[in-house]
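worker-03 picked up job from queue 'complexes'. Input manifest follows; two sequence lines, order preserved.
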Amino acid sequence: MATASAGTAPSAVERAIQRNLKGLGYLASSAPVLGASPKDVVLSRGPLRLYHYHPLTDEVYRVPVLLVMATTNRGYIFDMVPGQSLVEFLLLRGYDVFMADWEAPRAEDRALGMKDYVEDFVGGSIAEVQRLTGESDVSLVGYCMGGVLSVLWAGLNHAAGPKNLAVFTTPVDFQAMTLFQAWSDQRYFDVDRLVDTLGLAPAEMLQTAFDMLRPAGRIAANFALLDNMWNDEFVKGHRMFDRWSNDMLPLAGEYFRETTKQLVWDNALMKGTMKVGGRAVELDKISAPFLHVTAEHDHIVTTGASAPLIGLIGSEDKEQVVLKGGHVSLIAGPNAVKRMWPRLDSWLAEKST
Amino acid sequence: MSDTPNLDPFGLARGWMSQWEKLVNEHGTQLLAKPETAQAMQAMSGAAMQMQAASQEASAKLLAAANLPSRADFEALGARLATIEAALARIEQSLRTVAPNSAPPRPPVARTRKPPSTSPDA
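worker-03 finished. Artifact:
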């Protein structure tokens, strides 16, 4: 008991001192540089930026990997800092990695709709990856709405591929996203008026909606930061994730309008009535090996919203994996390094030759 | 009961914060899910949008009176630039097929990698 007492008391005092000292340093220091893995921008079209990362091995798998980022956020969540970068992890494991990332749409991009995002941006990225690598096969890996875009593209182009389709925390049953449903209730939410007035769906509005899913989240996160100010690793992680979660993007007006009407109001993807550019999306015709990784404690895309996707995909080789973690910690941070990344690698490696 | 002195000033607050967070998230989301809340939120955002639209209109008139370009003028300029960018992208694309990239190409990597379990040296 005496030993334990001697062990804990100085530690608490030490932490209190460190909190104060490092707290001052925190305020004075600059944020870490994120998304810095060497890359080329190989395609730039509207808000789309297609990156090709420089390989880190002499020999890569035959099939390139195209990551498709969610349209509301920046892609550097896949490439935080060395040692905490999914991109770096995949490069070191011998993949040829591309990423479809997004810039904020400009006022003149207001007319970009679902067809542009699916056919022109995802489809155009696939075509560019095929051209640059000389390979017709491409593995498509989408996150959240990036997963929806990937699934839509695959459902429209099932004859053409992809070679493999992996998605993370991808919603399909939008009726199950109860808070988003309540806030976009057709009786009160006039999406036409919003889009026609503003042109773009403002990032601040989207940020507020995400924040309201956990009303106490920000205050609790700031308390946790203060409490753990002595812990350099915690502070580093907090800064990275805080910067990313505050770095939201506005959405092109038509894309937001179509997402609201077709996906949220009509639940068209779940009902099998989804059309993009007048063409039917046929999830049951997708035959590529399919992996859906969801998070046990996802408060944004809840299990109810994501779980039905596996049943709608036609592939014989399909798998759903539920891992510990939340919507973001599933794909980035120490939890992802330990759980999701190795899982993705083991699934993808044997299908990438 | 432990006789160890608790010298961590955050110890008590940590437990309190955890309970508070749980409570606020639980009750807050229940409140936010109510149709009345959604109605109030949308009424507020509708009013904000109307104000923004009115303010944009007034600003445009003011700028026109001062012979300065308005937001709409900049947007039109942006749209024209986007058309030029798209045209440039098409030209770049065509040039790539005609002439190789002027930048020194990175050495090509062999696309022959095998998964560890199938590698002969695994």
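worker-03 released lock.
Chain A has 15 helices and twelve strands.
Chain A touches chain B through 57 residues (CB under 8 Å).
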